[in-house]
Amino acid sequence: MSGLCDVHTHFSWNNGADLDGLGALPVEKHLLFCIESARTYIDSGYTMCLGAASAAC
Predict the structure, then answer these.
(1) Shortest CA distance to 10 belongs to which of 40, 44, 45?
(2) What's the pTM?
(3) In b/e form, how buried is each residue of 36-46, taking b as 16+ CB within 10 angstroms?
(4) What's the CA gap between 56 and 14, in Å, rounded?
(5) If we measure between CA atoms, which residue out of 34, 31, 40 comes closest to residue 4?
(6) 10 burial level (CB within 10 Å; 0-12, 13-18, 19+)
(7) Cα–Cα distance measured from residue 24 to residue 6, given in angstroms and rounded to the nearest whole number
(8) CA dihedral in degrees (2, 57, 11, 4; nearest 10)?
(9) Averaged pLDDT, 45-50
């Protein structure tokens, strides 16, 4: 189903146990993680997402 919206998205959250886990990845790998997160939303039918916060992207 396309046309879904998410107004509280954290593309850069890398499933770390705490906030220190956000800085554990190099910036380049974190960017690739963010891109993969966005791709997952698109593949799931989301056509709009509002990034609520971002660690490195």
Answers:
(1) 40
(2) 0.74
(3) ebbeebeeeeb
(4) 11
(5) 40
(6) middle
(7) 26
(8) -20
(9) 89
